[in-house]
Specification:
286 residues, Conserved hypothetical protein from pyrococcus furiosus pfu- 392566-001, ParB domain, 5-stranded mixed beta sheet, elongated
């Protein structure tokens, strides 16, 4: 969506007169070497967007460009000066970052939360309209923030993608952390995660482990949880293989069905053992 800008003008401004926003959308502008090389060769093709504020100018959009110019020792840089208020400046910065795809999904989610909740600039639907995204897109990003910090770190570091992370929503924190670890280790696709999450949600005996301080069996329970999760994942993959077998491979199919039943029986045994340990812990806690 094109931002509706106030009338402004372009002028070269001294770098020392430009300050960063106290609430930047990105905590780190990343490497600027390639950008600096391009600016040195061709000049700054897109002016930095700033607004007058008190005795200096505040950068609205172009933090990375400004950092590259500083690395080249430039004293002045071309700037598009606009008379934005706080909300307009935030919207312009958000739109530019979305268009250039410079924010990771967690940074996007936190920027959306700041707009809607912290600053109270507008509703989810209003924000979606202003930035040219669907309400569903904005809502899904905001829901990511309900995940544990350890999972959010995996998303930030591109170990778990937003599609995979969305399949973890609705599970308890223990399951979310275990399944995110499974994604990192085994590269489990969203389709498989969805099936596992569905099974967990429908299981009357979920993976939650009572957290009794000093428990002798707590680590055993956690190990059982991991084994059950991995076996369930294996069984889903067995089902996928079975569905793709042709009629001519009926012998192979029979063998796989037999092994699938063995995995299912093992899951049942582990669940019963876990329930037994839970009862022991309950009695110990009385």
């Amino acid at each position: 969506m094109k931002q509706e800008l106030h009338p402004g003008y372009v002028e070269e401004i001294e770098v020392k007169l430009i300050r960063r926003s106290p609430h930047p959308l990105r905590t780190n502008v990343g490497l600027v070497d390639d950008l600096a090389e391009s600016i040195a060769e061709k000049g700054l093709l897109e002016p930095i967007v700033i607004r007058p504020l008190e005795d200096k100018f505040e950068i609205v959009a172009g933090n990375r460009r400004l950092a590259a110019c500083k690395s080249l020792g430039m004293r002045k840089v071309p700037c598009h000066i606009l008379n934005f208020n706080d909300q307009e400046a935030y919207e312009a910065a958000l739109i530019e970052n979305l268009q250039h795809k410079t924010l990771n999904p967690v940074e996007e989610a936190r920027a959306f939360q700041t707009y809607v909740k912290d600053y109270g600039y507008g509703s989810v639907s209003e924000l979606a309209r202003r930035i040219g995204k669907s309400e569903q897109y904005v809502s899904q990003r905001l829901r990511l923030l309900s995940l544990p910090e350890s999972v959010l770190n995996k998303i930030t570091n591109h170990l778990v993608n937003p599609s995979q992370a969305s399949e973890l929503l609705g599970l308890d924190e223990t399951d979310q952390c275990m399944m995110s670890d499974l994604v990192v280790r085994s590269k489990v696709p969203s389709k498989v995660l969805r099936k596992i999450a569905k099974e967990i949600k429908s299981d009357r005996d979920p993976f939650s482990v009572p957290d009794f301080e000093g428990s002798d069996t707590r680590h055993v329970q956690k190990s059982l949880n991991k084994c059950i999760l991995l076996l369930r994942t294996t069984m889903i993959r067995f089902d996928d293989i079975l569905q793709n077998l042709g009629d001519s491979n009926w012998v192979e199919g029979e063998v796989l069905l037999s092994e699938r039943k063995a995995i299912h029986d093992q899951i049942d045994r582990l669940i019963k053992l876990r329930m037994k340990l839970n009862k022991i812990e309950y009695v110990k806690a009385l």
